[in-house]
Each structure stands twice: as C-alpha cells, then as structure tokens.
Amino acid sequence: MSMEIIISEVLKLTPLQRIQLIQLIAESIAAEEKSKNSENGITSEQENELDRRIQLYKEGKMKTTSASTVNEKMIKKYGL
C-alpha cells in the first residue's frame, strides 16, 4: 500500500481516531526501541537511569559540559 493511499485513508478518520492512531504508532515505536535496547545489552535499570537523566536535562536540573570543554580537559589531562 502506498503512502498516498495510507494518507488518504487516515484523513477520512475522525480527529479522535487519528489521535488514537498516533498513540498506537508512538507506542509501537517505543516498544521497538525498547526491544532494540535489550538486544544491545542495555538493562532495564540502565534504561531507567538514562530516562531519569534525560528528564533532568529537559527540566534544566542537570549540569552539562560542552564537547569543546571536555576535549580541552582531556587534552590537558591525558595529552591527547
């Protein structure tokens, strides 16, 4: 089925049905990503920690350091 047909059919849905479709798609993507994380050796604890840190970052509650600053520190410390 082509994207044009899919889009045409989706636009026939009510707004509520389209929202439900978006939720279904988002959940399927999240499940797929979670599965990929498991395949890549990331434990659920590690994933939870990553989620926690991302949330802190989004809330502006995490101190960050620019890549250039990290590079400068690595060069000074290790002579890289």
Description of the molecule:
The protein is mostly helical and 80 residues long. It has one domain (3-78). The protein is 75% helix and 0% strand. The protein contains four helices and no strands. The protein has helices at 3-10, 15-39, 44-58, 67-78. It is elongated.
Observed structural traits:
80 residues; mainly alpha; 4 helices; 75% helix
What are the SSEs and their pairings?
Blueprint: H1 3-10, H2 15-39, H3 44-58, H4 67-78
Q: In summary, what is this structure?
A:
This protein has 80 residues and is mainly α. It contains 4 helices and no strands. It is elongated, with a radius of gyration of 21 Å.
Mean pLDDT: 89
Helical/strand content category: mainly alpha
Strand content: under 5%
N/C terminus separation: 53 Å
| 3D shape | elongated
Q: Helical stretch count?
A: 4
The succession of helices and strands, N to C, reads HHHH
CA-atom Rg in angstroms: 21 Å
Uncertain spans, ≥5 residues at pLDDT below 50?
A: none
Whole-number tally of structural domains: 1
Number of strands: 0
How much helicity do the residues have?
over 70%
Largest sheet: none
